[in-house]
Every structure is written in structure tokens, then in C-alpha cells.
Design a protein that fits this description.
The complex is a heterodimer of chains A (314) and B (476). With 314 residues, chain A is mostly helical. Helices cover 76% and strands 0% of the residues of chain A. Chain A has 15 helices and no strands. In chain A, helix 1 packs antiparallel against helix 4, helix 1 packs parallel to helix 8 and helix 6 runs antiparallel to helix 7. Helix content of chain B is 30%, strand content 24%. In chain B, helix 3 packs across helix 12. The two termini of chain B are 35 Å apart. Classes of the chains: A mainly alpha (314), B alpha+beta (476). At the A-B interface, helix 1, helix 5 and helix 6 of A face helix 2, helix 9, strand 7 and strand 9 of B. Chain B: It comes from Alteraurantiacibacter aestuarii. Chain B: InterPro entries: ATP-dep_Glu-Cys_Ligase-2, CP_ATPgrasp_2, UCP005522. Chain B: This is Circularly permuted type 2 ATP-grasp protein.
């Protein structure tokens, strides 16, 4: 397949994953903001913007953090080059550019999703409609994932698609954790003494991890249990080991198909081994923030290696 | 704007309202349908197209807005015997076009013999000096041709235009049929319609038969597109997909070792046949437009040394020129030794003084077209134009007469479309798609019927509010 097509497929799935995770984050943020006072609400909305790495862009346009402004900015503001609407459009453009590599089911899911979300976000989203719009975003992403899983032949195209999904998901999980880490642990105290269990609940919500966490910890909410689940539990679909197991399988398959060991795959195996060696104690001992920053940088290096190994660009 | 003195020929109904033979089975079926159900089907068709992303972009509209080409559910039906006659005329014309191209880029016998004036080429930007003396692989210049036909009576088909550069619309021929089969499967078990679905396979076969001398294995075909923002991108992707060819952009291509190669995930791989959907001017920035971002530097050198086949060949756009069109009867006769089976629409060449005088006197009754124009732009339809528009166009004509041709406003045939109030006649044209290879001329039975959706309108171009219909050639 063409390097450019591989790039389009990879990015199509990255954008879809990112759009979905952004909606999850906004959903959790909105929930938190509603349950706190005015000052707390502003903190929550700021935290959403910070997690998304949009602080500079947002503050260039707005003085205060309010629900309607943040939601509008994150979802659809023309000033925000990384709005959900833009991501969905980018996903669709990439799908269009690789139209000959995806099945009609996948294309129609992406195209219909884009039409639906474009319609839903044609005007500023009212408070009352926010929940439905966020659900729509998750639903459309789920439809594409389902169409991909159910209709795509398991060849190099599929492996590039899955690589994009898991690489992006690992990155998004790391970013969400990193921002909450700052807010929750200003002093270096991780053992049990919870500052605000609502904050952690918020993290779990944005990663769809509440049910899994409850089943493991019988309702006890602490930093350690949550970190254990999100960072090290290979059964949880947004955890690092889960994403890296899947990413590694797909990169391994790509390397085999191309008849050579790839740099991306080598980096991948190293990162996977490092993750396997980590325990929650070593992570907290060396510092959760450092761990997460290193993870994000390592993840980025794998993405760059994929693009170079498979000639995404000239 | 049809001429009120000449009644239109309606392809479905006789003037007294009886159904013509070609439509008899269809009309019987239609009589049994609930009008409300038909209206629902109409909405269904639009959804089908919108979901599958069959859209085109309109140049000059904001944000590269994607639009649907409206689809009408009433098929346009041609009988088998009508089609056989048409096919013979089309084949003759396409063979002549190809021979004409060869002659133009070699000895130019047709000019030496005095049948065609030299001036047609001396100022023609579509004529490429780079092609002089070169023999394209298989001797084929026009691999894919779209011949636009109009009809004015039971046996009167005329050629309105030849599209020898990069004819588009074939994806609509295929998708319109798919849509009809999906919506009305019972129609196709009742009525024997010749299939069009194997066009992509025929195209791939025809292109492969034109592979260059450098080809060592099964020919590798690629479709070259300007990219996702091009108005016909959907079609480029569609054809590549159906042929299982790669859909490439200029940024994927590079000349390496005397071959044009595409960047795959495992390195550069040579292409044998490039079905390009970019204009000549954008093909090679080293040879043509140096500012082109759509082209492949050096591709013309590879082409000339037999490393790749470019379809259609560069320089075939000469035949799309409306001044050349006006000489097609002479061209057909010159190269085939036969009288043309399909006539031209009568055409006045404004470059000639007598014709210009006639056109200026009768401008209100004529259609005036730019020689190099396309897509329905830059043309004047006399009978529907205001005095002001006529005066403006008169000035343009006087300033650059050689830039224009004029034709009578024809009583174009009509075919009914489906409206809320029932069937209503609308003007149509027809573009059959023709493939040329060393194995012969291959015409898919059918084509793209374009229909002017506005009552009385003669402009069928999709960029100007035209729609399309499925075209049936009966297997009778």
C-alpha cells in the first residue's frame, strides 16, 4: 500500500480516538462542574482545557472559564484548530483520502458520523443538549470501531488502523492522568489520604473506568488503586499495558509483512518491557509525573518511527 | 427555451400520449406503483447518495462545499437496435479521433491536404510540441473518450461534444445503476437491461493492453488524482477501488531509474500505466507549468523513453476544442474514408467572416460557446438572454471572433422526470463511455444521461443544476 495511504489510515483512527476521548473528558468535567460551587466549577473547566493542551489558545480568546465557553471552544469553535468538530472532519478527510483502502461500511460510518456531528454542532451547543451531543460523539466513534472490527480484512491496512487507535489512546490516558496528578498531589503523598475523591472519580469517569475500579476496590477510592488500574492493569481497555499489548501485536504484524524488523517495533518492545517491569511502588517512588512525561515522550517516539519506517512522507 | 415552432421529441411518449415501444414494459410497471411509495423511494435515493458520499465539489463556492448531483428515478431507455446504430457511429468517430491525433503529431497530412487550416493549431494551447514524432504505447492516444450526444427525433442523434482529454461521469453511470437495482430489483427481473457493471474491469483490461515496453510483469495501473478537494475525487477513488489500482497523488510519485515509481510502505514501486485525472498542464513541472504541485517532475522523459503509459496521452485535449469539433465531419471522412454515421450539430465558426456576420445578426436565436470552454461556463444561450447580455456578448464576439463558435438552439429530446405532481418532461443528453486499446474499441452499453431539472432548461451540466438518470440499453 502507499505510504500516504498508511498515514491517512493511521491518522483517521487517531483523530477518531482523540475526538472520543475529548468528549469523555468534557463529559466528566461537566459533571464535576455541576456538583461544585462557582469557584470549583471554574477550576474544573480550566482543568479540562489544560488536559487538552488548549490553555494558550483558550486564554487568547477568553478571560474566564465558564461552562458554555469551554464547551463551545472544545467542541466547535472556529478559533480552536483542535476542536472535536475539526478532529471529526480530519478523520473524515483522511478516510476520504484512503477511500480505496477501507470498506464501504467503515466509510459510511465515518461519513454519516461526520454529517450527524456537523449537524449537532452547527450552532453553539445548549447546556440541555450537551449530554446528548457528547453521547453522539462517543456513539459515532463506536460505530466506526464496530464497522472496522466487523468488516475489515486483517491486512496491513487494518494493522495501521489499530496502531493509530491504540497509540492515541495510550497518549490520551497519560495526559488525563498527568493533569489530574498535578491537581491532586501537590505534595508528595500518595498513600490513602485522599484530597478529594470526586477528582479521582472524575478521572475514572473520563476513562470509563468506574465499573472496573468498583469491582476491584469495593468502592474504596484512593490514588494508588486508581493508578494501579489505569497504568498497570492489562485487562482495562484504556490502560497502558492493554494499549501497548495491542499496539505491539499490530506493529509486530506490520514488521513481519514488510519482511524486516522495524525501528518502531524495536522501540515498542523496549517500551513494553519497561512497562512490564514497573510496579506501582517504583512508579510513585520515581514520581508519577516523571513517569507519565516519559511515557508520553516514548509514545511519541514510536509514532515518529512508524511514520519513518513506513514512508508516510517523502 | 426550446424553440416553440418545433415540438420536442419526447422519448417516452408520442404526441398523443401513447407510450413508445422502448418504454412499454417500464410504463406498465409504473402504472402498478403507488404514487406515495414512489415519493418515498425518491427520498431514499437521495439518502443513499448522501451516505455513500457520492458528491462533487463546485468550483468557486465557499469551503469546497460538497453537493449531491440530483438523481432522477425514471430511467432513460434506448432500444438495442438504436444502440447498435449509435455504437457504429461512435466507434467510427473514436477511430477517426485517434488517427487524427496520430496525424497531428506526425506528418499532419490533414493540414497538408488543405482540409484543416493551420491556424487551428498554431495558437492552440492544447497542442503539445513535446508530443511531435512520439508514438504512444499501442498507438493509442485517446484511451477513454466520452462522446456527448443529443437527440432531436426518432432517428436523429447528433454529437454535441467530444471529450478526449479526461472525460468524467462514468462513476455516476455505475452508481445510478446500482441505486436503481437496490431500489427496484423487480424491474430488472422483468426488463432485460444490458449491464454496465463490468466497466471497471473493461477499463483495467483496456489500460493493461496499452502497457509500455518497460513492463516486465502484469501491468501495474495507478489512477492519478489531484486529491480530495478535486471536484471529481469521488470518481477517481471509485474507479481505482473498482479496478484494484492504487489511487496516487503527485506527492506519492518520483522518477527513479527511468521509471515513475510510487512510494509504498515498503519502498518505491514502478507504475506501468498511469490513468491520470490531472490536466496536461499539471503533469510535469519540468516540461509544462513549472508552478504545478500536482505533477511529477520528469514524467515526460520517462514517457518518451517507453517507461510509462499515460492515459489519455498528453496533447489529446486538442480534440476537445470546439473549433476542431466543427471540422469533425471532414476529419472522420479523411481518416476512415467513410461518411460520418453520426452528424455534428450545425456549427458556425466565428473565425470565418461570413459566419461571424450571420451569428451577429442572429445572436438572439443561437447558442454561442467559447472554443476552449467547458462545463457550461462562458456560453450564451440567445433565446433566454437579456438584451444587455446579448449586447455584452456581441462585444466579446467582435473583439475575439476566433474564440467562439455558434450553434442553433436545438429542439432537444425530453425524457420524463419524477416530480411531486407526477411525470414531467425535461431535456436530456447522453454521454457514452468509450475505451480504446490495440484490441479495439469497446463501448459500454449505456452511459451518463444528464437531465436539465428546470422546466424548459437546456443546460444539463451538474455545475449548473443538472441531474442524472440511469441509462438503459435494452437487451432486445
Amino acid at each position: 500500500m502507499l505510504g500516504r495511504t498508511a498515514s491517512s489510515i493511521f491518522w483517521m483512527y487517531r483523530y477518531l480516538e482523540r475526538a472520543e476521548n475529548t468528549a469523555r473528558l468534557l463529559e466528566a468535567g461537566a459533571r464535576m462542574a455541576l456538583t461544585r460551587g462557582a469557584d470549583g466549577a471554574e477550576d474544573e473547566w480550566r482543568s479540562v482545557i489544560v488536559t487538552l493542551g488548549l490553555r494558550k489558545a483558550y486564554e487568547a480568546a477568553h478571560d474566564v472559564y465558564t461552562g458554555p465557553q469551554v464547551c463551545n471552544f472544545v467542541l466547535r469553535d472556529a478559533d480552536n484548530a483542535e476542536s472535536v468538530l475539526k478532529m471529526v472532519e480530519s478523520a473524515r478527510n483522511n478516510a476520504r483520502a484512503s477511500r480505496t483502502s477501507i470498506t464501504a461500511e467503515v466509510w459510511e460510518a465515518v461519513n454519516e458520523g461526520w454529517m450527524t456531528l456537523k449537524g449537532a454542532m452547527a450552532r453553539p451547543v445548549r447546556d440541555a443538549a450537551l449530554g446528548e451531543v457528547l453521547r453522539q460523539i462517543r456513539r459515532e466513534a463506536t460505530l466506526v470501531r464496530g464497522a472496522t472490527y466487523g468488516s475489515m480484512y486483517r491486512n496491513d491496512i487494518y494493522h495501521f488502523a489499530r496502531s493509530g487507535t491504540y497509540l492515541e489512546r495510550a497518549d490520551n490516558t497519560a495526559r488525563i492522568l498527568d493533569v489530574k496528578y498535578y491537581l491532586l498531589l501537590p505534595s508528595y503523598s500518595y498513600v490513602g489520604s485522599t484530597l478529594d475523591s470526586g477528582q479521582w472519580d472524575n478521572v475514572l469517569r473520563s476513562l470509563s473506568g468506574r465499573r472496573a475500579h468498583r469491582s476491584l476496590n469495593a468502592g474504596r477510592m484512593d490514588a494508588r488503586g486508581i493508578a494501579e488500574l489505569l497504568i498497570l492493569d492489562g485487562r482495562f481497555p484504556r490502560s497502558f499495558p492493554f494499549c501497548y499489548e495491542a499496539l505491539s501485536d499490530n506493529l509486530q504484524a506490520l514488521a513481519e509483512m514488510h519482511g524486516q524488523e522495524s525501528r518502531a517495533n524495536t522501540l515498542m518492545q523496549e517500551a513494553k518491557n519497561k512497562l512490564a517491569a514497573a510496579t506501582i511502588d517504583t512508579i510513585f517512588d520515581t514520581g508519577l509525573h516523571e513517569f507519565l512525561v516519559n511515557f508520553i515522550v516514548g509514545n511519541q517516539a514510536i509514532a515518529t518511527a512508524i511514520a519513518e519506517d513506513y514512508l508516510f512522507a517523502d | 427555451m426550446s424553440n416553440p415552432d418545433v415540438p420536442n421529441f419526447d422519448e417516452m411518449f408520442e404526441p398523443d400520449g401513447t407510450v413508445r415501444p422502448a418504454y412499454r414494459d417500464y410504463a406498465n410497471w409504473l402504472d402498478q406503483q403507488e404514487p406515495a411509495a414512489m415519493r418515498r423511494k425518491n427520498a431514499e435515493a437521495e439518502n443513499f447518495f448522501r451516505r455513500s458520499g457520492i458528491t462533487f465539489n463546485v468550483y468557486g463556492e465557499g469551503d469546497g462545499e460538497e453537493r449531491l448531483i440530483p438523481f432522477d428515478m425514471v430511467p432513460r431507455i434506448v432500444t438495442g437496435s438504436e444502440w447498435r446504430r449509435l455504437s457504429r457511429g461512435i466507434e467510427q468517430r473514436v477511430r477517426a479521433l485517434n488517427a487524427f491525433m496520430h496525424d497531428l503529431y506526425h506528418r499532419q497530412e490533414i493540414i497538408r491536404s488543405g482540409r484543416l487550416p493551420q491556424r487551428l493549431f498554431s495558437n492552440n494551447e492544447a497542442w503539445l510540441p513535446e508530443m511531435v514524432g512520439f508514438n504512444p504505447p499501442g498507438g493509442v492516444y485517446t484511451h477513454i473518450v466520452g462522446i456527448d450526444l443529443v437527440r432531436t427525433g426518432p432517428d436523429e442523434f447528433m454529437v454535441l461534444e467530444d471529450n478526449a482529454r479526461t472525460p468524467s461521469g462514468v462513476s455516476y453511470m455505475l452508481e445510478n445503476r446500482e441505486t436503481m437495482i437496490a431500489m427496484f430489483p423487480e424491474l430488472f427481473s422483468r426488463i432485460p437491461v444490458q449491464r454496465v457493471s463490468d466497466y471497471p474491469r473493461r477499463l483495467a483490461k483496456s489500460l493493461a493492453a496499452c502497457a509500455p515496453s518497460a513492463t516486465t510483469d502484469k501491468p501495474v495501473i495507478a489512477v492519478l488524482t489531484p486529491g480530495i478537494y478535486n471536484s471529481a475525487y469521488f470518481e477517481h477513488a471509485f474507479l481505482a477501488d473498482q479496478m484494484t489500482a492504487e489511487l496516487v497523488e503527485a506527492s506519492d510519485l518520483r522518477v527513479i531509474g527511468g521509471r515513475v515509481q510510487m512510494r509504498t510502505t515498503s519502498g518505491y514501486k514502478p507504475i506501468d500505466v498511469l490513468y491520470r485525472r490531472v490536466d496536461d498542464d499539471f503533469l510535469d513541472p519540468l516540461t509544462f507549468n513549472p508552478g504545478s504541485m500536482l505533477g511529477v517532475p520528469g514524467i515526460m522523459d520517462v514517457y518518451r523513453s517507453g517507461g510509462i503509459t499515460i492515459a489519455n496521452a498528453p496533447g489529446t485535449g486538442v480534440a476537445d476544442d470546439k473549433a476542431i469539433y466543427s471540422f469533425m465531419p471532414e476529419i472522420v471522412e479523411f481518416y476512415t474514408g467513410e461518411k460520418p454515421l453520426l452528424p455534428n450539430v450545425p456549427t458556425w465558426r466565428c473565425a470565418e467572416a461570413d459566419s461571424l456576420a450571420y451569428v451577429l445578426d442572429n445572436i438572439a436565436d443561437l447558442v454561442v460557446k467559447e472554443v476552449h470552454g467547458s462545463g457550461g461556463y462562458g456560453m450564451l444561450i440567445g433565446p433566454t438572454s437579456s438584451k444587455r447580455e446579448l449586447a455584452d456578448f456581441t462585444k466579446k464576439l467582435q473583439a475575439r471572433p476566433e474564440n467562439y463558435i455558434a450553434q442553433p438552439t436545438l429542439a432537444l429530446s425530453t425524457v420524463p422526470i419524477f416530480t411531486k405532481a407526477g411525470l414531467a418532461p425535461r431535456h436530456v443528453d447522453l454521454r457514452p463511455f468509450v475505451l480504446v486499446s490495440p484490441n479495439g474499441v469497446d463501448i459500454t452499453p449505456g452511459g451518463l444521461t444528464r437531465v436539465a431539472l428546470k422546466k424548459g432548461s437546456l443546460v444539463v451540466n451538474s455545475s449548473q443544476g443538472g441531474g442524472t438518470k440511469d441509462t438503459w440499453v435494452l437487451d432486445d
